[in-house]
Please model this.
Amino acid sequence: MNMPYSKEVDRKWQKIWEDSKLYKFNPKNVDKKLYVLEMFSYPSGSKLHVGHWYNYGLSDSWARMKRMQGYEIFQPMGFDAFGLPAENFAIKTGIHPHDSTMQNIETMEKQLKEMGATFDWDYEVITCLPEYYKWNQWLFLTLYKTGLAYRKEAPVNWCPKCNTVLANEQVVDGHCERCETDVTKKNLTQWFFKITDYAQELLDKLEDLDWPEKTKKIQTNWIGRSEGAEIEFKVADQDISFKVFTTRADTLMGVTYVVLAPENELVAKLTTEENKKAVAEYQDATKKITEIDRLSTTKEKTGVFTGSYAIHPINGQKVEIWIADYVLGSYGTGCVMAVPAHDERDFEFAEKYKLPINRVIKGKDGANDALPFGEYGILVNSGQFDGLTSEEGKIQLVEKLAEQNKGQLKINYRLRDWLVSRQRYWGTPIPVIHCEKCGAVPVPEKDLPVLLPYDVEFAPDGESPLKKSAEFMNVACPSCGGPGQREADTLDTFVCSSWYHLRYPDNKNKDQAFNTEWINKMLPVDKYIGGAEHAAMHLLYARFINKALRDAGYVNFDEPYTSLIHQGTILGPDGLRMSKSKGNVISPDVYIDEYGSDVFRMYLAFGFSYIEGGPWSDDGIKSMSRFANRVERIVERSKELAGITGKTEMGKEEKELNFVRHMAIKGVTKDAEIFQFNTSIAKLMELLNALYKYEADVENKNIALFQDAINDLLRLLSPFAPHFTEEMWEALGNKGSIFNEKWPVWDENAMIKDVVEIAIQVNGKVKGRMEIPTSAEQQEIEKMVMENDEVKDMLEGKQIAKIIVIKNRLVNIVVK
RNA sequence: GCGGAUUUGGCGGAAUGGCAGACGCGCUAGACUUAGGAUCUAGUGUCAACGACGUGGAGGUUCAAGUCCUCUAAUCCGCACCA
Model:
């Protein structure tokens, strides 16, 4: 007995699927594997929101289609379970992060199952459990061994009132998000991953990826390759020299001063006695300025003179050495040659502090070259280099410098090394022991995991929470056996998410993070689906880790994610991002209770362009319910006709129905392939409309055709409405899951019509229509059109210049 | 400031350079009905309506432009003193 579609139908089939293990990945079929991965989610306390349904529901539809097309789908799910929100929640409520996180995971698993997605839960990965983070620690050690993990001093955001380190997202307009205090900087020794070693490859390999162009562009900018030169300046009267990086070596002869970043190590040596006070004050002031203010382009430039002079590497002139916060310590060499005539920033600075401004470039062919003139031109006031173009000057000046070992061409990247230390509790402990004698010693692999202790005071008080657990901290040095202290910082959660796709297919492995031979068969991920907000960080980190593991011999492929899709964002009804504080959050639950999960899924598929997203509106969700009802009724009709022998001929109506049927198969197959679910559903509606039309118009039916078309409709619809179509499939008396059926294949021949209506244009404007046999060739079409009486009337007294015939579409007659 | 994307009926959204507005919502009229927030049928870009005009705006290429090119505006996103 079959029921009208509702939530109960969802539950019925979810149970059948689970009992029959329908969606278990079969490793024997690895040659047909398709690794479909949705970015795993953070186990938040609230229920699944519309975004989860939109992301996971629709990519599941895609996976279901691929399954029916014969792929062995590997579609795992897991949880990115470490991170700040659980820790903050704990500080507020006293509920331990582990307890709240595991509770949330349980709830989310249940809800994800109710969505009816084909996740294979046997391969679940939860990052906050030792069986995962043990291997996260292994990853750290592997990078350490290969020289890709290192320690150096780096500033953290520091709230002096809360006495704690703040993540960037906790700094709001330079203030602590909790207490509004001005945030300052504090230097700590922290761990970094050397992603910059891979800058060039990360850039080069982008080309081969099937990723959105926009995302590639974001990564390109993020890596920020720039070609220039490094030029050495000697300091007058001292045995010190420093290098500057410039992309405009052609302007070298216009250098009138040089600027160092205030935090540059050389500053102490270069500062003369009478300037010490001013320099020290300026350095202090820089430290207090928040990153955001310092990086603001609108801020007036400031700086102080160090008292020292540098020697121009070509003309030998003495130029002043300044420090200024518009020069960044972290980019290039942290030193800049200032050419005020040809750089806006230097110009502004030079005017303010009355530094000389020398023009060395003039515009080509009388271009407006008012100073500051930043464009390329012709070199002037540059001695032997006068008359060269900027392009030539860049090369020749550097060649000249190279002869004297004072300069060379150089490529710089904006990309910085990845800071992975976090002064937090709820994360993977960094597997390092600090020993007075031996320094930082990695924890031997056999001692992994370094367990995260449960009983820890993690309220913020200025220390990493783990530091307060004596039991955790005090340990023998693995190297000398003397007293040691564990590293108290934890790893950035982006480390967890940078390789989780490697753990999924081998998640039970107790001896290794993953088995290389197996992983080389299962990876790379064939289709990766997730939000565009991860375009820069997560996706770049994962690519880097993949390359690092490849070079260490653990994987044999270059890139983790071959093909990437970003789903759009469903906004609140007001067009703004949904958030509790704005009160515009839409809960899917109400709709699911009323209509069932499939109607909701179909509505998400139909109502939005998947890649765009858009503001939520439930106008039209009823139409999906109506659509399901209409399908139900046509299935009923099909059942009534069972056993009756109809005609077998293919008349006009039959051909028309068959045409729409095959158009739908082709359309849905092609559109869904590229995640165009809205047009896929539209084509199914057209097929349903055609079925109704046939049913109403034709007395003596070709029942076999009618029923075949309904079968196709159900199979095409099944990825979008899995529970509903299973129910319908069963109602028709079929045995077994519809998802074990083959995906329909279209027949091009069925899509050839006998006659087609084409448009008759005169000078590009539609003036009439004509029915033309599709078999007619260009010349025949032209003849038929030109002999038509109406066309003759239209062309009365006009001179025909040209006739354009586009087969099956139109004829355009160009007249004078 | 730099880079990228988007802009199509009342609405969500379709259109390999080839009949703009598929499909759906909404709306209008009708049918059925005790009833209708159900269902079915028909219609629905705009206007001064037998025609003309229509894809943010202005030019251009083409027999033909929503689609290609140039300029421009608005919105969104990314980067942001990167030497």
Remarks:
- The mean pLDDT of chain A is 89.
